[in-house]
Each structure stands twice: as structure tokens, then as C-alpha cells.
Fold these 3 entries.
Entry 1:
Amino acid sequence: MKYKRILLKLSGESLQGNNKNTNIDPSVLEQYAEEIKAVKEEGVELSIVIGGGNIFRGGQADVLDIDRVQGDYMGMLATVINALALMDALERIEVITRVQSAIEMPTVAEPYIRRRAIRHLEKGRVVIFGGGTGNPFFTTDTTAALRATEIGADVVIKATKVDGVYDSDPKINPDAVKFHQLSFMDAVSRRLSVMDTTALTLCMENDIPILVLNLWEPETLIRGIQGEPVGTLVSND
């Protein structure tokens, strides 16, 4: 394996699959769990940050006339719901999992403690980080970059429904060009949809590459961790 310790970033919206009438599609949870189990069986230390956009996004606050800070906290709580759902799917196929939340709620999750998270990884457990950073005005992209830096991850893998990063939206522009490799500076200057600028800068400063790939393609995750040329790799090289 090219990467020993990874942080996987999942979007909350992806849990809906193609069924927009539900917040969480059980078949998507099952697929994600099987992909994660396959990676774990290769001895990779795996942590996960999951968004909450399928339930509530902080950006919805204005539309609902809710204070932005309160809206961001609501979004952070939504990520914990998704984390618990994914933990349940993993443990049903015998993958030992722990959820840690930046917002303390001891009845359902451990508090986020960096050293404890690293110890879980060393013992072969999957760790899901919920609750965002615990602070408003930060996205789950930034949470992923921050947690990856704190636990010493070798790479951040951003799972999407697209097979990499393009110079424009491939769903709109059939002539969109895919990048196989990018520098962080290029990603920032071109304003490409990799991660938000704060997350990109944090990964750049700590030399943590970002691999963007399509988790819906079978075995893409494990192939990416093995170092095969899948998706788009964003790095300092």
C-alpha cells in the first residue's frame, strides 16, 4: 500500500444516493461499508470525516432566517447523525468503529481527543470524526484537512461522484479536461472544485496530498490507496 494512514472525506449528500426522497439510502451505506472493510483488510489505518448536507447545511440558515452561527451548529449536529449511521453499517459487517465528536455528547460519541483517536487507529479501529471542527464558519473540508494534520495522515482522499478534478463541470461541458495531477497552487489559483481554500492551504502547508476519486466505481478506493493512477492527485510535487 502506498498510504498507511488515510483520512477519507465523504459528503453527506452522497448518502442519499440517487434517491432524493430520503436523507440516507441504506444501499449507499452498505456500499461504503464494504469498500471501507476491503481497505481495512489490507492493514490500512482509516479515519473518516463525513458531511451533513443531506440533513442540514449551515448555508441554509439564511433561507430559513436562522442565525448563521446557529445554522452552522445545526449542520455540525447533522454530521454526527451521519457518523452514527455509518458506524452502524460498519459494525454490522464486523468492522470495529469509533465515533468521536468535536461537540461533546457522551451518550452517543466519544469526545474528540487526538491521542485517543491515534490509539484507535493503531489498534485497527475505524475512527469517524463528527461535529465538524466544533466551531462555526468552518466546512467539513477544513475539518478533514485539520484532522488529517493532527493524526499524521499520509493522504486525504476526497470521495465524489466524479472521477477526478476537471477544468470545468463535466456534467455541463462535454469538452471539460480532466487533471491527473495538480499542484496546490494551481488548484487555488484556478479556483478548482477540490476543497475550499482553507482546507487546501492547510494540506499544502503540512505536505498532505489530496486524492480526488469516484467512490462509486468499484475498487477505486483500494486502487487509489495502492498508488494506482486513479482520480486526481493534488500535492506539492
Entry 2:
Amino acid sequence: MLKILDDESTIRRCQRQFIRSLKPYVTERIAVRIGHPGESVRANVFWAEIPGIWYHSKAVAGGRYWNAFGIGKPAAGGAVSSTIEINIPTLSLDRKIGGTFAQDDAGKVFLVHRGKIGGRRGVGKSLFEAHYRGVWTEVQDGHTRSAVVVIGDLHSPLFVRQLAQFVHKIEAIKDLGVDDDHQARIFFDDERFRGEFIGGRYVPEGRDYASECDRDLAVLDLAFRLREAGARVKNNLEGDLFTSDATGQATAIFEVITGTGSPFLEKGMARLLFRSLNLPQEPRRFLVVPGEMGQEQREVLLKLGIHVISYAWEMGTAVFAGLNEQLVG
């Protein structure tokens, strides 16, 4: 189980690493006014063209690091509102502050968030909990336990992508509005692939948080590659990725897993077979696995009607070997 960090010097070191990881992506420094409830302040924000977010960070009164993030390049001298503040307590535990750092048993540190989001009326923790899909977990939070979402592995080369994905998901949630019927929107008005649906809403046991965060990015990259190949790419409320024909019927379903050991394969196989039940037409099934898989394993899966696509990470992006060949095979 992850444990919330509460040592002042450790928190300070993690905060420095948090902001240091963003600096290589900064393309411009822009003077703006940042507005938040009750006031606005003059500030210089840093625009990171890739991955398309801006941020401002400093220590402020009240024992916290103020880390504000937004989407889209701000206009110089203009006013901006942050999409999300991932504020961090400076001294110890403070459950009133949304962001914090947590460590696993191996000493790996993750940026996590308690779901405290703000904005207009109707935007708050309850909206977040109802709609956020991602890496949820329970953490040791001092003498109690709390539910949080894991944003990313602080020292991973993919951390900035993980962070940007979180910011974009929050933007999508806040766009829902207090009276919006999310389910109706997805199934009737907006039947397409949505990045904010990637991830889960439950807390499984036996976690590799770094791999789970990486998996969400692999799903995004796979959706992009499928669109490049001309496929109609969609996902549902559970985040399941599939392609469809012109009538909306599923033609292929994809399950991305993070390992090739028996537990990963069994779970991936079961989900693919379960997802294909009761569909009007038989879809092609694809298990998307990290690294190479032995020929014997591939043949066993093929007997179940499951094709294998391998992926590897190259310069922060998931690359899928033989994807186009598999799609036309």
C-alpha cells in the first residue's frame, strides 16, 4: 500500500523534482493574471507546448506549494483560470490540500490527488469521484486510510505525459456541468473515443502503480495509431477501447495489459472474451502486450480467437509492432 509522505525535507525534495521534471518542456514564459475564487494575482506562467499545458508554482502562505495548471497557451497580459491546482502541503499531512506525494514499499514516489477540485457551482470532489477514471487506490494517510488517484511516477520519463493526461481529464470533467447527464452524452450525442475514460474506478489488490500509469498512456497512443490507420475508434464508460463500422457495431476490441505473466494474460483473455459476449457480430480480439511474447503463447491465444500486438516505449511514446499488418490480417 502507498503511504503519504509527511516529512518536511522529503516533501520539499519531491516538490523540487515535480517542477524540475517540467522544465525541459517549457517553451515560453508568459506574464498573466491567474484568477481563482475571490481574487486574481499577477504571475509568470510557463507554457509547455508539448504536452500543451501551462503551469505556475511557488510556496505560499498557509503551508502549501501552489501548483496551478491549465490547458492552452495563455495570451501575454491576459487573464487565465487554472484547470486544476495540485497543491502540496509544505510541512506534513494536510487532508484539506488536494495534492500530495506517496511512496510504495519499494521506495518509489508518486504524485497523488485527493479529488479536491474547484471552480464554478457544482464542481467539486463529488463530481470528481463520480466521473474520474484513472488509477484509483487507497493509501495509508497518517493514522487513517484515504482514497486517492495516482497521477504518475515522479521519476518516470513518462511523468509529464501522465501529469498532462490528468489535467486534460479534469478539464473534461469540469466541462460536464452540474446538470449534465454524462451517460446520455456518451451514448447518444458524443459516441467517440474519449481520453478521460481511460482507467478504472475500483481499487484492485496487488498493484504496480507505475505500470498502471504507463498503461493509460499506451491506450492513448494505441487510439491515435488506430485513427491514423483510418479506423473509427471509440471507448465506452468503462474505458474499453474498440473500433466500429459505419453502423456503430464493434469490429475489433482491444485489451492493453502491462505484463506477460500468467495473471496478466489470464485477466486480459477473460476480459476480451467477456466483452465480446452478446455483441451483434463477432469482433476481432486483440491482446496488446508489453515486449515480445513467445510463439507458443501466441498460438494458444489464437486458438481462442485472440491476436497479439506487442508494444514498446520509444522516446516516451508506445510503439506497436506490426499493428497495421494485424488490422488487415
Entry 3:
Amino acid sequence: MSTWKVFGLRVRVVRLKLGDESIELVEYLTPKGRPVPVDSRSNDLWFQHVAIIVSDMDKAYQWLRQNKVEHVSSAPQRLPDWNKNAGGIRAFYFKDPDEHPLEILQFPPGKGAEKWHRASDRLFLGIDHTAIAVTDSEASLHFYRDLLGMQVVGESDNYGTEQEHLNNVFGAHLRITALRSATGPGIEMLEYLAPRDGRPFPADEHANDLVHRHTILITANADQAARFLLGKRANFVSSGVVIDSHSQLGFHKAFLVRDPDGHALQLSEP
């Protein structure tokens, strides 16, 4: 598949829906890629998680514990009230069977989208955003805001013992910038102001390596988007725009490109 620039591949793709949002699981039957580094930390630049909103943090955490998930956070954390933009949010990091980090999150009244506060008998409600570690917020803003057209919808400065226990990074101090498009989950940029020892994306990372994740953005015109990003010297993974005439992979046209830190994005034309 030249979209992902892995040759001779055979994949199984499963799309899972939760509420209004969905994720795709891609299993490379051949060729197999490398596992996630066992010593990965939340400030390494390949870090990316999916934030799942829950209606009751205590019940959700107990459910995860019953199913013996691997902790990243020591336990659910409530961010302190002095933090105006994040105070009252409860969150917990854990890992899936392939060591990909995930987050469950509960918004207090007055924070988060209105739909997360509607009465529901469901425990897991949907996906609010994906969060990525970045080196330089301004460089990433140029890419996501100025080139891709996303809008900044929130910022916060997070530090303290709660943040350390959430991320499992001693001395964690983060600049967080939340971006959104008109619809769909957002992208949250996590710049570690401290510690600054997060490792860069592996230079030889391929789409079949388990460290690989990509975020799918919808575009009305993949050819035009590709020409624009090529003109801006974006780092392409795909050799060009790929056409899937049968739409077996959920798109008509698509290409894969990287942000300034190496996170992959698939721009898809339905």
C-alpha cells in the first residue's frame, strides 16, 4: 500500500465506533513491524493517546482494574482548581495490549463539549481528542493552525504532583494547546517544558511498526491539499495521492504526511 509506504503488505483493518467517533485498528499480517519501545515515556515525542470520555470516573477505573489494564498513571487524578482551564478535570492514563497509551477523562460542569454532560446510561461516551507530544508549540501551531486550518480552542499550563502522577513523569510541566476543526475530535499538543529529555521519533519508523499511529483528517480535495503541502515542504510518507477506487479503506483518495515532530496524518477525500 503506497499510502502507508509499506510494500508487500497484507493488513486486517477493523473500525470501532464509540458514540459519534471511531478508531481504526490496523494489523499488519505481513510484513510484521517492531514493537513499541518498552521504556517509552509520556514525554517521548512518539507519544500519542486517544482520550475517551466517561460518565463516571470511579466506575470506569474500577472496570479497567477488573480487566487488569496496565497503568501509566498511579491512579485517576483530579487536576487542581488553581489551574483555571483544567481544574476539576479527572483523568487516568493506561495502555492497550500493544502498549499504546489511552486516557479516560471526565469533565466537570462548565468544561468540555455539551454532549459530554448529557444524561446517559453508558459509561464510555466517545472520543474527545487525540493528544501528541511536541517539541515546540509554535512550530506545531504553524503546521496545524496555519497550514491545516485548525482553530485553537484552549490552552493551559499544567504542573504539580497531580500532573506527575497522571503522566508518570517526575517534574512534569506541560504547555497544552487544544485545536479543533468544525467537527470531529480535536488534537491536543503536549509540549513538555520540563523535563526536556523526551526522545525524538525514530528516524526509521514505518507504518507497520507498533509505535506508528496516524490521525485521519477529511479534506474535500486530496489533490489540492497535497499540492499545497508539497509547496510548503511538508514531509510526505506517501509517494503521492493514492486512489482507492473501491473505497475498501474508507477513502477515495488519500495521502500520508508528517507533522514537524514526525506524527503521521492521513488526509482523506471520501
